[in-house]
């Protein structure tokens, strides 16, 4: 009797263990299926207390100090390390247009959001090298930011993004080789394979400028792969003086007409549109810039079929 009871207990224990193993296996398979398309890599663990900035208003002194101390990287003091050399202008035409509008102005200030590698398709490198401008390059993609730092740019930089709201935030960022954007798991456009996602800090543009001690921007290059309209909405236009902007328009869900209407409501002139293989930008200009430029009103630089700058007069100049 005792032997039978002991055998039954052993068999019962074995069955229970087998059931637990099967349940664990099925749970693991289910979990894998649920996350196989959203693989988190380059995902940083936040230092203790490092999330305290989340939710702080754009002009909160604690946030400004945090950005100064932990986010902004100072300009490099080492020689440039540019793949194409210092005489190459990698901009897709935007730098040429803005340079003409400012009459080849020296010692200006720029913000480039979507700094990429700091060289390829950079709209600001020309101003830094040829016109002695300063500014900040903002790029949240970890690998791109590492390349950006390796170029030894002589301006500030930040591994972060300009947020869509008026307060600081922490987001998940979708990284690709040439582009990156704030990740939305509900977006049907994401491919059906594992995604390169990373943790990213987002701060209002106003916060970056306060941390740098300025509220005047001569040129703002905004290329953030669909968040442009929301970023522009988050800007306190009564506190920041941005003279010219190039804004990527082709991916924003609000559409190009809404973008143009919004910028006009802020007092800007819709100056021109770029359509190139890698560029879909609108140029916006404050009237005061046109009042002082040597470019004749209604005379616009355009890109011809040979991808060079030419000049023509447009009768449908929009103001």
Automatic annotation (TrEMBL):
Record-level GO BP terms: endoplasmic reticulum to Golgi vesicle-mediated transport; endosomal transport
Record-linked InterPro entries: EGF_Rcpt_Signaling_Reg, FkbM_mtfrase, SAM-dependent_MTases_sf
Origin: domain of life: Eukaryota
Pfam families documented for this protein: Methyltransf_21 (PF05050)
Annotated ranges, domain Methyltransferase FkbM: 114-270
Membrane-spanning ranges: 12-32
Key words of the record: Membrane, Transmembrane, Transmembrane helix
Listed GO CC annotations: endoplasmic reticulum membrane; Golgi apparatus; late endosome membrane; plasma membrane
Family matches, as SUPFAM superfamilies: S-adenosyl-L-methionine-dependent methyltransferases
Protein name per UniProt: Protein Star
């Amino acid at each position: 009797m005792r032997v039978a009871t002991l055998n039954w207990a052993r068999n019962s224990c074995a069955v229970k263990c087998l059931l637990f193993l099967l349940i664990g296996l099925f749970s693991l398979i289910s979990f894998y299926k649920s996350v196989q398309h959203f693989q988190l890599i380059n995902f940083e663990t936040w230092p203790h207390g490092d999330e305290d900035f989340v939710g702080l208003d754009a002009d909160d002194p604690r946030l400004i100090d945090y950005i100064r101390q932990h986010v902004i990287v100072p300009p490099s003091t080492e020689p440039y390390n540019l793949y194409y050399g210092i005489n190459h202008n990698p901009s897709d035409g935007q730098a040429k247009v803005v340079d003409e509008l400012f009459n080849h102005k020296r010692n200006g200030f720029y913000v480039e959001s979507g700094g990429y590698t700091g060289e390829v398709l950079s709209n600001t490198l020309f101003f830094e090298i040829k016109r002695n401008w300063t500014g900040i390059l903002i790029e949240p993609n970890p690998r791109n930011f590492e390349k950006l730092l390796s170029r030894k740019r002589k301006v500030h930089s930040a591994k972060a993004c300009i947020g869509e709201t008026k307060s600081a935030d922490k987001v998940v960022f979708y990284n690709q080789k040439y582009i990156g954007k704030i990740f939305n798991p509900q977006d049907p456009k994401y491919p059906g394979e594992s995604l390169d996602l990373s943790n990213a800090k987002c701060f209002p543009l106003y916060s970056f400028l306060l941390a740098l001690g300025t509220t005047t921007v001569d040129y703002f290059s905004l290329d953030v792969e669909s968040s442009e309209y929301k970023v522009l909405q988050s800007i306190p236009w009564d506190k920041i003086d941005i003279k010219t902007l190039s804004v990527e328009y082709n991916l924003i869900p609000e559409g190009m007409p809404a973008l143009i209407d919004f910028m006009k409501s802020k007092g800007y002139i819709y100056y021109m549109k770029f359509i190139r293989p890698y560029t879909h930008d609108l140029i916006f200009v404050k009237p005061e810039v046109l009042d002082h430029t040597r470019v004749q009103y209604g005379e616009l630089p355009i890109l011809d079929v040979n991808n060079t700058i030419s000049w023509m007069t447009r009768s449908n100049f929009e103001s």
